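haha ok so turns out i had the wrong file open the whole time. this is the CORRECT one, sorry everyone. sequence first:
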Amino acid sequence: MLHFSRLAGATLLAAALMAGTASAQTVLRSSDTHPDGYPTVEAVKYFGELVKEGTAGRYSVDVYHSAQLGEEKDTIEQVRSGVIDLNRVSMAPFNGLIPETTVPSLPYIFRSEDHMHKVMDGPVGDQIAAAFEQVGLVLLAFYDGGARSFYNSKKPINTVADMAGLKFRVIQSDIFVDMVAALGANATPMPYGEVYSAIETGVIDGAENNFPSYDTAKHAEVAKHYSLDEHTMVPEAFVMAKSSWDKLTPEDQAIFKAAAKESVAKQRELWAAKVKESRAKVEAAGSQITTPDKQPFIDAMGPVYEKHVKDDKLKAMVEAIRAVQ
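then structure:
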């Protein structure tokens, strides 16, 4: 009997050790379309370090940068279905799926970066975050996506009239398509990874994005005219599959939330530094940066708001954002 008890005890101990080993090997996969070293990629890596530390190594995060797991639209479906665990993606591709994400994607809804931070860190941000759960996602953090502006290979853009007839790549979002149309230009939705060759071959004249993307995706090589109209400051969403989230204990969920919050401060710090670095780099390489009067661009956005802000809930969100000082 003694021998059997020892054997049973040893078996139980081995099983416990194996379970511990298995839990230590819970590696979560996270997707990002941007290259290694980009502020969002580094922020998610930092999040992963904090999670690993907070869970004593039971969880870790592998970040698949450079669209290794697919372009943003594809990875949204992958994370919703639980094929991948985590995803950093722009807010705009969620517009058709989560109506609340429409509002921070609107042109000129934010007066400044500081205004955007106050909004997304406050009650409106909480309202938007809650809406993600309805589609099988848990919003962990809002990261900075910077101010997006138009750039092209043809000419400087100083006025709305200069936009006429130009073909711009936009995010796969109706708001962006309608925004470009309201300015008299033509919008071509396409994946981020196809933009360089499309400009180079003349399929499109340009695109719109922030300085770090303009720089790191090498769009500055083929589109030298950058117009600082800053039409949107669409936040980035860092989300987790609800199926993966539900496997966590409440204690681990708290660790993940705290790690995500801490990663926001890190990302904003990295972002601010990257914007300065990228702007200096593209200017040194010959990009021509102009600063148009924004008001005529803002004035042209009436039809976009009329089309996309129809129900009372979204109208109230717009007013709430405008009221934030």
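The mean pLDDT is 92.
again sry for the mixup
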